[in-house]
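Predict structure. Chain length: 86.
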Amino acid sequence: MTIVIEAIGPNNADLFKDIRVRALQDSPTACSSTYAEESKLTDADWLKRAAQWSGATSVAYLAMATAAQWVSHQECAIAMIASAPI
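Prediction complete.
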């Protein structure tokens, strides 16, 4: 299995959204937010959020297996661990 590490940004905001809301459904206590809250966000909200997660002062990553299958449903924990000041 090949693992791909990709910085979260506007170019993959749709994938970030899909992974994040699925993680919130699968592991509702893993994040400080909830599926009910984040599933209401608009595409524009997700673009803004993705840009903020990897912006001028930090970077966060998606870790994916080939064919964009998520390696771990604990996306919140992985993104927080992978996020670092620049």
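Summary: Residues 3-85 form one domain.
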